[in-house]
What does this fold into?
Amino acid sequence: MLRSSIDLGTNTCLLLVAEWDASSKTVTRTQLDRSEIVRLGQGVDQNRMLHPDAMKRTLDCLKQYAQDLKALGLNPADTVAVATSQARDSSNGAKFFKEVQATTGFKFQILTGDDEAKYTFQGGLLPGMNPEKAVVIDIGGGSTEFMSTIGGKSLDLGSVRFTERFLKSDPVTDEEFWAAQAAIDQELQVLEPWRDDLDLESTLLGVAGTVTSLAQWQLDLPQFDAAKIDQVTLSRGDVHRMVEELKWRTIQERKEIVGMEPKRADVLLAGALILWRAMEVLDFSEVRVSTRGLRYGILNI
It folds into this structure.
């Protein structure tokens, strides 16, 4: 049967429609996989409120998604729809999601950080991967989730959050960059005991837009191709090199990178910096890339 899900994050809104095997609880075929950058978390880190412009962009996107589902014979009310960091942090989120339901039919659940990590882990694994030796990192706009079979944690590290908080110049200054790096390293220290308990042969698996954008750049791939991106492994040196290049580029110059989503160009440095520092602090020499993630995991709700 066909099932649909929506992952509404701080930066992106993702729609998945897939053929679902209820007995094995797995996706057998992806029919529709869409992503729009809506930046719902605009200003939430500072103001703890969803911005009117961000709500309008998001509602417009969800209206289109509702039409797409109806064209496939699906009822938007049956979609598993979840919101994450920006919804947890905003004081007006509940009011906004009531409007969303009234307008589109989508009934959103606001996930806790722990649940977000759990479903991201379940959904992010690629076919054939051993869950016991996998560690998933999901770098979002407002938070970053780390998860394995022994547990994990959600940290308030995000590409939008840290761009707005630290990386304000264009191009960024050394002082801004170092301050962001120091803050990331400090946040990551809480994970060191968890890292010590992981299997030494654990594979770090990166999901979500930051990591897939870096993989597309690595491949020099003009168009997004999930099959090719799912084969990519980035070394710690690869990620560090990308961070350094993004650091000296202006936002406009970043947009000239092959395959760069223009709306992601301003926040990709912060996301790449989070990935690089996570690999350094937690001692992972490489990261495998997955185009899957939370939208796959929540189909099992």
Observations:
- The chain has a mean pLDDT of 93.
- The chain has two domains: 2-110, 126-297.
